[in-house]
Design brief:
It is globular and about 35 Å long. The mean pLDDT is 94. The chain is of the alpha+beta class. The longest helix is centred in the first third of the chain and has 14 residues. The protein starts with a helix and ends with a strand. The chain contains six helices and seven strands; from the N terminus they run αααββββαββααβ.
């Protein structure tokens, strides 16, 4: 494992880290803004990531969220973990309601269809996600909710 990714995994496993998620998100937003959206905390941590753009399910306003994402062939896998917090990330509800979403990978914008995975498909995808971010196991232990996993398939 690369040094920066190993450090990111260690930091991400700290039990009190979820309390600071709002500050982490704000810090990441500043880094992205200052770098002209060329750099994020996930990039600094040497973690694969994408940005999704999805219409809000109620407002219809486009919501932009950067997520740790693991490539799986030409698809991407994402998980609504929110550090194992008790509440579901808002983007999960929007992705569930959308017919298609935009994904941005290294500045390239494309359209994708998001499919929520269940049963054996979810379990296999979970193992792929864990291979990049082992802390998903901790997040699963921290919460009573089932962490949703999505496959994003380019249209």
């Amino acid at each position: 494992m690369k040094v920066r990714r190993g450090l990111a995994v260690k930091i991400g496993s700290i039990s009190w880290m979820p309390r600071f998620l709002p500050q982490i998100v704000k810090c990441d937003s500043v880094i992205q803004s200052v770098s002209g959206h060329r750099l994020s905390l996930l990039d600094i941590g040497d973690l694969p990531n994408i940005t999704i753009r999805v219409p809000g399910r109620k407002s219809g306003a486009i919501r932009t969220t950067q997520l740790l994402a693991v490539p799986d062939g030409s698809d991407w896998l994402i998980a609504g973990s929110y550090f194992g917090g008790p509440t579901m990330p808002a983007w999960v509800f929007n992705v569930r309601a959308a017919d298609e979403i935009e994904i941005i990978v290294h500045g390239e914008v494309s359209v994708a269809v998001a499919t929520e995975l269940f049963d054996d498909e979810r379990d296999a995808a979970w193992q792929t996600l864990r291979s990049v971010w082992p802390n998903f196991d901790l997040y699963e232990q921290r919460t009573d909710r089932r962490i949703p996993v999505f496959r994003l398939r380019p249209r």
